[in-house]
């Protein structure tokens, strides 16, 4: 067989195709935009303060790590498709922080309190899945109702005595090595483990398949009920783990501890470039999205913007990001 004659293909056509392929490859990494935005915001902070501080970046990364955990929990639910969101997440965060600090199993039993709190998060996730799968209640409604029930429990127990978690866990989170906090390392390891689960496990494959087309996944043998159960349990456990970390790192608990993590978790997913329609996950994108939002808030505080203006600008960041993702999606098609 003779080789194909490429003499009829002009060099400009070849260069154009190569350029288009390179552009598609770049656009295929949805988190690159968030990375560029984070670097620009860091540079802006340097211009405001007169110095490009690595410690400023690491301090914001520590705060962003907590938001990234909430974003990862929300991202897992969003990836399951059908417009799913976990609106119970901020309530689980706050309730878990109270449970961790209450010392139900004894004041010095940190390990026992940790497992009890994680189990509570898993139970909440299982209840959410039960309402969605068995009673066919939309995820937004089911998780909102569960969240209100949990909030009533928070109100009931918040007057009880709570202790500082302390111990080796607090020491680990507050440890600093070359400016890197132990809290940042712990959140980073958690996100890495979740990335492995979503990217390398059978469950991860089923989750992405369900998010892209539930009917096609069902025909392929995916048990949608079980996949939904695992998805919401993972979200509940991550929210509980975030509550544990916040209660330990901050050394206290308040009734509005998890409030900012509802919209913040969704915003981190969107800014990170993950499709809100489901079927796609990106731990790197979500982490970078959380960093962008945290740096943006820090920059606005340095510029002495009021809280109202901060919310407006952060909302505009999310809107611009959604628009860019829509343009990217049309280009890749």
Spatial sequence of strands, sheet with the most strands: 1-2
Largest sheet: 2 strands, antiparallel
| Alpha-beta content class | mainly alpha
**What's the rounded overall pLDDT mean?**
86
Question: What is the CA-CA span between the terminal residues?
Answer: 34 Å
Return the CATH architecture: Orthogonal Bundle
Q: Under CATH, the topology is which?
A: ABC transporter involved in vitamin B12 uptake, BtuC
Count of beta strands: 2
Radius of gyration: 22 Å
CATH class category name: Mainly Alpha
Helix coverage percent: over 70%
Could you state the order of secondary-structure elements as H and E?
HHHHHHHEEHHHHHHH
State the shape.
globular
Percent of residues in β-strands: under 5%
Low-confidence stretches at least 5 residues in length (pLDDT < 50)? 19-28
* Total count of helical runs of at least 4 residues: 14
Number of domains: 1
Task: Provide structural commentary.
With 333 residues, the protein is mainly α. The chain has a single domain (54-332), classed as ABC transporter involved in vitamin B12 uptake, BtuC. It is built from 14 helices and two strands. It has helices at residues 11-28, 32-49, 54-79, 89-102, 110-133, 139-157, 167-174, 182-200, 202-212, 214-219, 224-250, 261-271, 283-302, 307-332; strands spanning 176-177, 180-181. A two-stranded antiparallel sheet has the order 1-2. A hairpin with a 2-residue loop joins strand 1 and strand 2. Helix 7 (167-174) crosses helix 8. It is globular. 43% of the residues are buried. The model is unreliable at 19-28 (pLDDT under 50).
